[in-house]
Amino acid sequence: MADVQVLGRRPFGVTARRDAWWVEPLVVFVVLGSFAVYATWAALQGVHYSHGGYLSPFYSPELFGDSPHAIFGPKPGWWPLWLPFSPAILILWAPGGFRFTCYYYRGAYYKAFWADPLSCTVGEPRKRYCGEAGMPLILQNVHRYFLYLALLFLPILAYDVWNAMWFANPATGATEFGIGAGTVVLAANVVCLGSYTFGCHSFRHLVGGGVDCLSGSPARHTCYNVAGKFNRAHMRWAWISLFMVAFADLYVRMCAMGIWADVRIL
Amino acid sequence: MARAIFSIWRGDQSGGAMQDYVTEVSEGMVVLDAVHQIQAESAHDLAVRWNCKAGKCGSCSAEVNGKPRLMCMTRLSDLPLDEPVTIEPMQAFPSIRDLVTDVSWNFEVKTKIKKFTPRPPDAADGTWRIAQEDVERVQEFRKCIECFLCQDVCHVLRDHHLHDAFIGPRFLVYTAALEMHPLDVEDRLADLKEAHGVGYCNITKCCTKSCPEHITITDNAIIPLKERVVDRFYDPVRRLLRVFQG
């Protein structure tokens, strides 16, 4: 192929654009960075993650822990003494990996955190580039495996909503059905995470995008169309679900710390 | 009638500079109208490529105020005219002169992509039957007018000049149209991974944002191709299944 001699590249940050091109990467940097800091802090706390029937989504499923939600009991004896323990450490890598390798987030944080590029037609800081064709970013191709794990989390979080519908009667001590503001928060979180997960590009590929002819499989074709509808709003659901999962953790945490009082709706 | 300043890049492959021109602008004018007016009034030797003036031939691609645009579809009423409007040639291709670039590399790339190869005909008269829902997915890709704005805005070509390793968004769309076609039986996945460099795309979606035909390039063409490449080369479970399936 002919050697393509183009005019020189623009220096870092230089562009002829007149619009506020820096706003989008700045917002992504601040919001995504803030979420990462908060999620890491919340995951390492190891306390105030459950309140009655409520369990923070950062800690669900609670494999080992001190709350009544723990499946296998308290912190295991084999846990290394030098390693700080939190139930969230055991599971949060899975949904975290799903978001980190998500096609939408990849494009967003390559721009906001790595300036590759900072924004369209804006000069870049580095000359060397191999994108996702070489190490380490070639590992992003593992995304579909994080999708499989993320799909497992949805019924678990839905079960947490079921658990959040049962409250202890302070007078009798009996367990009774009810709906609190926390129930609504946890339910909304599952809806948002589901909408984000079912719009995943790998999910769309899995249910039908990988084949050329879907006319012979009406069920698969329907799944592909539904995934396509969610996919068209994937960016929106990525942000909404990010806020929602952080807020769900914050809500449970505030209730557990006694700062917020949970409101019983029913 | 108002007057506006247009700062136009003048030069060739050896170099050039922005040069200011003042001209009258009126309601309904597009950038290409202003360029033609300047050509007629004060810059008779200004080189500009154009043809249909209707956003369908893809000839008048340029960068207006730093954004890849078709000049014939960019209304002056959408631009701030209180400051000079900059018009530059596409940066991802060699300059020929002024606003005209040499886009021949794109046509060379196209010849390297395996051609449409249909399965044997479905009927004895040599014709095929395709369900509407099967062909709908690739219809979007056929809207491409080959303006090459997506190639221009792609930082892999524009900033990193990886023309030898990456075919660019336009030809990933072209490949997707072939690869996802219900009749096509050709296998382009190895080419996509190696010679065509689909892995170089880091999903910035600049191509999608600049497409004048509003083709969802990244989500509907590039990412599905990346997923198919993952199926073939990076997914150990799929590999194992293929072993058992023969």
Written account of the structure:
The complex is a heterodimer of chains A (266) and B (246). With 266 residues, chain A is mainly alpha-helical. Chain A has one domain. Chain A has helices spanning 23-45, 87-91, 93-100, 103-114, 143-163, 181-197, 201-209, 218-232, 234-256; strands at 50-51, 54-55, 166-168, 175-177. In chain A, the strands form two sheets. Chain A has a two-stranded antiparallel ribbon with strand order 1-2. In chain A, a hairpin with a 6-residue loop joins strand 3 and strand 4 (175-177). In chain A, helix 1 (23-45) packs across helix 4 (103-114) and helix 5 packs antiparallel against helix 6 (181-197). With 246 residues, chain B is an alpha+beta fold. Chain B folds into two domains: 2-101, Beta-grasp domain (Ubiquitin-like (UB roll), Roll); 104-237, Fumarate Reductase Iron-sulfur Protein, Chain B, domain 2. Chain B has helices at residues 31-41, 104-111, 132-139, 149-153, 155-158, 169-179, 189-193, 206-210, 217-234, 236-245, and strands at residues 2-12, 15-25, 61-64, 67-70, 85-88, 95-97, 100-101. In chain B, strand 3 (61-64) and strand 4 form a beta hairpin. In chain B, helix 6 (169-179) crosses helix 9. The longest helix of chain B has 18 residues, at 217-234. The N and C termini of chain B lie far apart (73 Å). The model of chain B has no long low-confidence stretch (mean pLDDT 96). Chains A and B meet through helix 4, helix 7 and helix 8 of A and helix 2, helix 5, helix 8 and helix 9 of B.
Brief overview:
The complex is a heterodimer of chains A (266) and B (246). Chain A has 266 residues and is mainly alpha-helical.
Keywords summarizing the entry:
heterodimer, A: 266 residues, mainly alpha, two-stranded antiparallel ribbon, 4 strands, 50% helix, B: 246 residues, alpha+beta, Ubiquitin-like (UB roll), Fumarate Reductase Iron-sulfur Protein, Chain B, domain 2, 10 helices, 16% strand
